[in-house]
Write a structure and sequence with these properties.
The protein is 34% helix and 24% strand. Helix 1 runs antiparallel to helix 3, helix 4 packs across helix 8 and helix 7 packs parallel to helix 9.
């Protein structure tokens, strides 16, 4: 891979920082030189900041746009995600696969900086040999990172602290909920990877998801943002595969293929005592999946949206 995910992401972060006032973000520099862009903790943030966070998360290889959606006859605000490099954009970069847990500071980290850290086994299955002297990560948290956290992240990424950019937003914020909903394609790719399908064979991806209303707190926000994908997310993938393979695969990809499917995610998480690892990993996928074969041109579809659960989640 000759593309530098981190360099592309930092260029996008530079643009966001240069337009900080208009985007409602706050840019600060820690004493060690690490740049922190607050997109929704103390700063107001908003849709523009959320879109920027999502595209930075994808290393500049994916595009997020806002759009109205009609699900089962009901109008909802929503977004679309497109990429022609799905494995790189969504798994090598966007997937929130690295947990920062240092001296009482906790955050889930996503973004292309993970490709430098390589803390996850999935990189063994991707054509990624990321090399960069800059790094960017998105932290799903309400707490600004400390100098010690920034030093830890920079060390793991192999860059100078002054070459590190950290973007933060809690789930219960406009930007935070936007960037999580924008993981709709990523969840489909991750599900395929969990099913031991070679995601490098996915050539292009288009996904949509409703934008969940901002929740009263981060716990409720986790529920709503997951519901946006599990019960409202729709993803179409173009795949290098023959019909027989895709026909059997399609039924296994949607969230409804999991026995845990069928109630708002907040309830599922509460029953699991707020331990994600107690939840069936096969649940985390879009509501509807479409797989189109580049070999035959045929499309195989499975799953469907569930407006009833979205209404319970979003407006209760």
């Amino acid at each position: 891979m000759t593309l530098s995910l981190n360099k592309r992401a930092v260029e996008l972060a530079d643009r966001l920082a240069a337009d900080a006032d208009a985007a409602g973000v706050a840019v600060t520099t820690l004493s060690n030189g690490t740049r922190v862009i607050d997109c929704g903790s103390q700063a107001p943030g908003g849709l523009t900041a959320g879109k920027a966070m999502a595209e930075i998360c994808m290393g500049g290889l994916g595009t997020v746009e806002f759009t109205p959606l009609t699900l089962s006859g009901r109008w909802l605000p929503g977004l679309t995600v497109t990429t022609d490099r799905p494995a790189l954009a969504c798994l090598a970069a966007q997937y929130a696969g690295w947990k920062i847990d240092l001296d009482g500071y906790f955050a889930m980290a996503s973004g292309p900086g993970r490709a430098l850290i390589r803390a996850e086994d999935l990189y063994d299955d991707l054509d990624v040999d990321e090399k960069a002297d800059v790094a960017a990560l998105v932290l799903e948290t309400r707490d600004p990172p400390t100098v010690e956290v920034a030093e830890h992240v920079a060390s793991r990424a192999g860059v100078a602290p002054g070459a590190l950019t950290l973007l933060i937003a809690p789930t219960a914020s406009v930007a935070g909920s936007t960037q999580v909903a924008a993981r709709v394609v990523e969840t489909a790719l991750h599900k395929l990877h969990e099913l031991e399908f070679d995601v490098r064979r996915v050539r292009s991806a288009f996904g949509s998801a409703p934008l969940p209303p901002v929740a009263r707190d981060d716990g409720a926000g986790i529920g709503r943002t997951n519901d946006a994908v599990l019960y409202g997310g729709q993803v179409a993938l173009t795949v290098d595969a023959e019909d027989e393979e895709l026909e059997g695969l399609a039924e296994r990809v949607p969230a409804s293929a999991s026995d845990a499917y069928g109630k708002p995610f907040g309830e599922i998480l509460e029953e699991a005592e707020w331990d994600f690892y107690k939840i069936d990993p096969m649940l985390f996928s879009p509501a509807l999946i479409m797989l189109t074969s580049t070999d035959s041109g045929r499309t195989f579809s499975a799953g469907d949206v569930d407006l009833g659960i979205l209404e319970r989640s979003f407006w209760s």
